[in-house]
Amino acid sequence: MIRLITRARLARLEDTARKASEQARQTSGAANEAFGRHVRELFAVTDRAERAEATTTEVGALLSRAVEELSEAQQELLMKDIEIRRLREELSRGPVAGETLTVLMHHGEPRAVYASREAAHADTATHGCPADHVWKRCDERPAAAFTWRCEAFIYDPASHGFHRVSRAVPRVLGGAA
What is the per-residue pLDDT for 174? Predict the structure, then answer.
């Protein structure tokens, strides 16, 4: 079969081809633009996901540390509760005859009261007294003459109070009547 193509037909075919080519170019440009938008959205979503993951890790670490601190605080509260119960029991039973207390004095002023002399000596180390300090019996000088001094007190049920264990021996005044 032989087909004859006229100039008008050829012009119409060229025009259709040009329009098809233009439409293909526009469609390709729109597709490229849509692909670019999708790539940018993908990068933005990936960035948000990475930031969320980093934040989650950071919050997890903070939460873990907070749980550790809470556990430590609960343990400390439990120990303090046990100590409070022990002290309440001790307080409710009251003093026992012959029970002694030690008063730590600094330049004659009472600093603190301790259950034992060893506890008082240990506390002076926290106030600057050397831990290996050799403690000696105090002489007749007044308590204010000593930097640190420990005085023992014993409970006397007859008087309902504590009295100094070592009482000062009165000096005989020469020639006084």
Answer: 64
